[in-house]
């Protein structure tokens, strides 16, 4: 090898080593971005995703197309996303149920920490304990806790499905408060649990804000507490469980995620794009009409929140010895 070739070879090695290893592709994106939702059109995840796509594509650079892949309680969509090419052209929405499924369902192969990179949280749905307005249970939370303690396994609590996110929140609350009620699961969610409450078939319900928000505004129910860290700005009169001394910090959150091997540069690009999108009043109003609160937390804080939620879920799984079915 002559001297010129040696110099050329060394120069190439130096250039490769010194060049940015995680630079954003200069022309990214060149085509539309698929946004996988593991639930059917009209579901809460789908509705949130469509608002995210509508405002996010303006800043992402190309159209964001929602692709529904329902099945297995969302696991089909999560599995499909985990296996997608990590080129920045496939992202998806990851909700709280994504933490539950690996512990509760046989055959689930994905794990949020192993198979995904988070871009940002986009919204959250506070879970609340609500009662019929004017009923004997329409009392401050601590007083209701006292009543339930006096008559354990007597009061009926409506929830949206056995070991759903709402049911996990219910379990954490009962553990913290030292009470025990009778679970009444409804597979139809609010369409079944709300009539049961208003008809006196349940004493109180645990449900997401889309269930109780219209009824609360209409004066038909009273919400005794919500699971969010801080009071919801839309409902400043509703206290949190933490304010009452019961640290129940399990919400139904929505994150935007990508396959695990997606480059950090693409993740940063999309995170900044969604940050700008979520700052728009139209986005805030759009998710507000769904009964959820819009938020941008970025990658680092989103990871912290996801780890925290997974620890909460693991605690309930261990305490109740839950097994995949």
The CATH architecture term of the largest domain is 3-Layer(aba) Sandwich
Distance between the termini: 65 Å
* Sheet with the most strands, sense and barrel status: 6 strands, mixed
Task: Briefly note the structural class of the backbone.
Answer: alpha/beta
In short:
Helix 2 (44-60) packs across helix 10 and helix 2 runs antiparallel to helix 11. By secondary structure, the protein is an alpha/beta fold. The chain contains 12 helices and 11 strands.
Task: Describe, in plain words, how this protein is organized in 3D.
- This protein is of the alpha/beta class and 325 residues long.
- The chain folds into two domains: 33-125 and 251-319, D-Maltodextrin-Binding Protein, domain 2 (3-Layer(aba) Sandwich); 127-244, 3-Layer(aba) Sandwich (D-Maltodextrin-Binding Protein, domain 2).
- It has twelve helices and eleven strands.
- It has a six-stranded mixed beta sheet, with helices on both faces.
- Helix 2 packs antiparallel against helix 11.
- It is globular, with a radius of gyration of 23 Å.
Provide the descriptors you would attach to this structure in a database record.
single chain; 325 residues; alpha/beta; D-Maltodextrin-Binding Protein, domain 2; 2 domains; six-stranded mixed β-sheet; five-stranded mixed β-sheet; globular
């Amino acid at each position: 090898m002559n001297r010129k070739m040696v110099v050329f070879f060394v120069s190439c090695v130096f250039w490769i080593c010194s060049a940015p290893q995680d630079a954003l592709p200069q022309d990214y994106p060149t085509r539309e971005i698929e946004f996988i939702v593991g639930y059917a059109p009209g579901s809460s995840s789908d509705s949130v995703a469509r608002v995210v796509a509508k405002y996010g594509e303006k800043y992402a650079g190309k159209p964001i197309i929602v692709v529904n892949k329902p099945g297995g309680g969302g696991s089909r969509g999560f599995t499909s996303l985990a296996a997608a090419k990590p080129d920045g052209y496939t992202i998806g929405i990851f909700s709280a149920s994504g933490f539950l499924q690996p512990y509760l369902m046989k055959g689930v192969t994905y794990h949020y920490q192993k198979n995904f990179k988070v871009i940002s949280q986009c919204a959250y749905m506070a879970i609340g304990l609500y009662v019929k307005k004017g009923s004997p249970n329409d009392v401050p939370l601590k007083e209701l806790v006292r009543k339930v303690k006096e008559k354990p396994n007597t009061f009926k609590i409506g929830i949206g499905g056995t070991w759903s996110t709402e049911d996990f929140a219910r379990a954490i609350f009962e553990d913290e408060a030292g009470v025990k009620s009778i679970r009444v699961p409804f597979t139809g969610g609010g369409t079944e649990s709300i009539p049961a409450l208003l008809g006196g078939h349940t004493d109180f319900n645990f449900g997401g804000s889309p269930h109780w928000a219209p009824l609360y505004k209409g004066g038909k129910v009273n919400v005794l507490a919500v699971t969010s860290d801080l009071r919801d700005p839309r409902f400043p009169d509703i206290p949190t469980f933490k304010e009452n001394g019961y640290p129940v910090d399990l919400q139904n959150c929505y994150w935007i995620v990508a396959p695990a091997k997606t480059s950090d540069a693409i993740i940063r690009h999309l995170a900044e794009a969604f940050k700008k999108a979520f700052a728009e009043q139209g986005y805030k109003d759009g998710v507000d009409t769904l009964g959820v609160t819009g938020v941008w937390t970025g990658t680092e804080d989103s990871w912290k929140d996801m780890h925290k939620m997974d620890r909460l879920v693991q605690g309930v799984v261990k305490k109740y010895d839950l097994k995949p079915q």
